[in-house]
Amino acid sequence: MNSIEVRNLRVSYDGKKYVVDDLNFEVKEGEIFGFLGPNGAGKTTTIRVLTTLIRPTGGTVNVLGMDVTKYGLEIRKKIGVILQQPSYEWNLTVENNMLIYGTLWNIPRIEVKKKMEELISKFDLGEIRKTMAADISIGQRRRLQLVRELMHDSKLLFLDEPTIGLDPIARRSLLTYFKSLAKEGTTVFFTTHNLEEADFLCDRVGIINHGKLYAVDSIDNLKASYEGERTIEVMVDKDPIKLVERLKQKMDGGVVDPSTSLDHPIKIVTNKVPETMEIINDYIRQEASSLLWLNVKKTELEDVFFKVVGEHHNE
Ligand SMILES: Nc1ncnc2c1ncn2[C@@H]1O[C@H](COP(=O)(O)OP(=O)(O)OP(=O)(O)O)[C@@H](O)[C@H]1O
Ligand SMILES: [Mg+2]
Fold it and tell me: I want to staple 233 with a disulfide (CB 3.0 to 4.6 A). Which of 13, 48, 265, 266 is the partner?
């Protein structure tokens, strides 16, 4: 069964430009689905539609079998949502923030307390449980926002960059917690920029850029489809921008990092390593430049992402 079904979804805020353009994908029940894409790609906008906060401009979206334009209230009762923008009650303690939220969902008091204790211990909030939300650190607030939403069980969780601002330990406990939720049948839809995280957690990922979905697949398949690809990192002592231009002109397929700066290696994803090396060599000879760094490695998820996004960079 599918928890989410998206058909030809389009969203425009101004009636002119589609910031989400013809998306098609589904998320199966119990799946952890990662939504990846650079800033402004359309991730939050998509989440807003899926959580019934805004209406689609076009297309159809079903969440838990219900049309988002008709069953907003019912859907919202069944889902958990953690948005990118922080939200909590400043003038309540951590504990009371959690309790209030639990009560909102009509959960019996004894269960609310049990759940609270579980989450306090899992997310290491014991020391600050009696502290006002206004007086805790930013990362602790983020954790509070997360545990508050986890107070009630939901079949489907939406999380917009849930791990931003968390330290490595909190991040790991959160990811592990998602995994255990998914094992019990909860579907998790989350966005991230962190590919390691997606690799660790997701069954499948969708890669979105400029409102268009360029790939939806399992991490393993995505990696396999880039099996022959290699990532070349190169640094030269003179004029890297010129080398980038040269590579773009002469390379047959493959992509070059568009955001090259002087102090970072130029990154190239290609399945034609010798030919690309030739171009680099020619450049060094002709420009009397020297090589500062060269590395060829197997293409990792990050590079797959970079390639998918890079190939469509100018569209
Ligand atoms: N309320 C709004 N009104 C008008 N334009 C908006 C609004 N919200 C987002 N946009 C625009 O829509 C596009 C997609 O934004 P969105 O917030 O969905 O991106 P995102 O993928 O979540 O990015 P990020 O990684 O930075 O969170 C951007 O160009 C953004 O400027
Ligand atoms: Mg966003």
Answer: 265
Task: Give the C-alpha separation, 21 to 15, whole Å.
Answer: 13
Closest-CA residue, ligand 1 atom 29, reads 40
Determine how β-strand 204-209 pairs with β-strand 230-236: unpaired
Q: Is the CB of 42 under 6 A from ligand 1?
A: yes
Q: What is the pLDDT of residues 193-226, one digit of tens each?
A: 888 888 889 999 999 999 999 889 998 888 888 7
Residue positions counted in the chain = 315
Q: Is the Cβ atom of 19 under 6 angstroms away from ligand 1?
A: yes
- pLDDT, tens digit (0-9, with 9 covering 90-100), for 148-194: 888 888 899 999 998 888 888 888 888 998 899 899 999 999 998 88
Ligand 1 within 6 A of CB of 85: no
Fold for domain 2-223? Rossmann fold (3.40.50)
The protein residue whose alpha carbon is closest to atom 30 in ligand 1 is 40
All CATH 3.30.70 domain ranges of the chain, comma separated, are 229-298
- Decide: 41 in ligand 1 pocket, CB within 6 A: yes
Strands, sheet with 266-270, edge to edge from the N-terminal-most edge strand: 255-256, 266-270, 230-236, 291-298
Amino acid identity of 47? Answer: I
pLDDT at 315: 45
Place of tokens 């760094």: 293
Q: Which of 11, 13, 36, 195 to mutate to test the pocket of ligand 1 (most atoms within 8 A of CB)?
A: 13
DSSP annotation of 132 reads B
| 229-298 under CATH 3.30.70, yes or no | yes
The rounded distance, in Å, linking the Cα atoms of 102 and 106 is 7
Q: What pTM did the predictor assign? A: 0.83
* Contact (Cβ atoms closer than 8 angstroms) between residue 236 and residue 290: yes
- When pLDDT is cut at 50, 70 and 90, the band that residue 145 belongs to is confident
As a whole number of angstroms, the distance between CA 143 and CA 124 comes to: 9
Cβ neighbors of 176 (< 8 A, separation 6 or more) are none
